[in-house]
Amino acid sequence: MLRVGLISDTHGLLRPEAAAFLRGCDHIVHGGDIGDPGILAALRALAPVTAVRGNNDRAAWADALPETDLLQLGGLWLHALHDLAQLAIDPVAAGVRVVVSGHTHAPLVAERGGVLYVNPGSAGPRRFRLPIAVGELCIAGAAATARIVELQPGAQAPAGRSGSTTTAAP
Length: 170
Known about the structure:
Oligomer: single chain
Number of helices: 3
Strand content: 25-35%
Helix content: 10-25%
Number of strands: 11
Shape: globular
Distance between the termini: 15 Å
CATH architecture: 4-Layer Sandwich
CATH topology: Purple Acid Phosphatase, chain A, domain 2
Order of helices and strands: EHEHEEEHEEEEEE
Strand order of the largest sheet: 3-2-1-9-10-11
Radius of gyration: 14 Å
């Protein structure tokens, strides 16, 4: 089984609770609005990283980041982009099983038409009354399950054991 960490909307802040949760992942996907190249360096110290550019990633360092990315993890294809409203492919027709996005800061796990849509929410500065969260995708062959983990800033919990979770499976 592959454990894929999902993070988005860090806006220049990698919380220690998020880093602790992501430690031990086989891969990390960042859904954009990274905010600082140091975030990617810190994540790469934990696991291989796939990152997409968010609408706030405008500095020169972010020019090298793609707006979308398609990658194979285990036995499935994953499509990453920042803003789900700008999804320009038909995931089912493209053979994509999981779509990871960010932008809204609102955590989401939903399955529609055989495609698992995951927005890990925002792990960066709190916005409005939305939770500070990360996500986890567990892949076994072509099957995937996802959950959102709400982080409790200041209370460093063991990886994978903090906050509330929401799960969807095929």
